[in-house]
Amino acid sequence: MKKIFTLIAFITLVSSTSFAQTANLNITLSDVLSFTVTQPNDLNVNFDTEEKYSNGITALATDHISVVSSKGYIVKAVAGTVTGTALLAPGSVKLTSAIGATNAGNTGGLTFTSNVILPVAGSDAATIVTADATSWNGSNSANKFNVSYLIGANGAYAGKLVGANVIPVVYTVIQK
Question: What is the pTM of this model?
C-alpha cells in the first residue's frame, strides 16, 4: 500500500510540471490617413430673390467630410479655380464646421471653426477642423463632419453677370 501511495505521489508530482516557451509577436504600427468628401445636391444654389442676394444662401452639407486617421489631424480648405460668367470671388463663401450627424468616431480633442472665409487658390488654406487625437472610437474608425457654406451674403453677387458659376472648394487633410 505504501508503494502504491508513493507511486501516485510521484506521478502527481511529475504531471504537475509545466514548460513554457515564448512566441514573439513582431508588430509594426504605421500611420493611417484617408478621407472622403461628398457632393450633396444641397450645394446647388440659385440666387433668384432679393433676400438671397441680400443675405446669401446657407447650404448645409451633412456628413460632408469623413476622416480616418491613426493620430491627430487638421482639415484645411482653399478655393480651386473659379469658373463661370460672373467671376465670383472665393471670399464670398464662408465655412462653418461641426460634428457630423452620423459620426461614431472619437470626438475628444476636436476643434471646429465658424465663418471662415474661403481663401483664394494659391494662398494658404484655412483650417476648418483640428483633431488632437485619432479618429478611432473603439471599432468605429471614421470621424464625420458637417460643413455649412454661407454663400454670397451682403449683396456679394448683386450686379454680377447671370449664369452658372462654380467655386470649387479643395479640402486637404494632414496629420499632426
Answer: 0.85
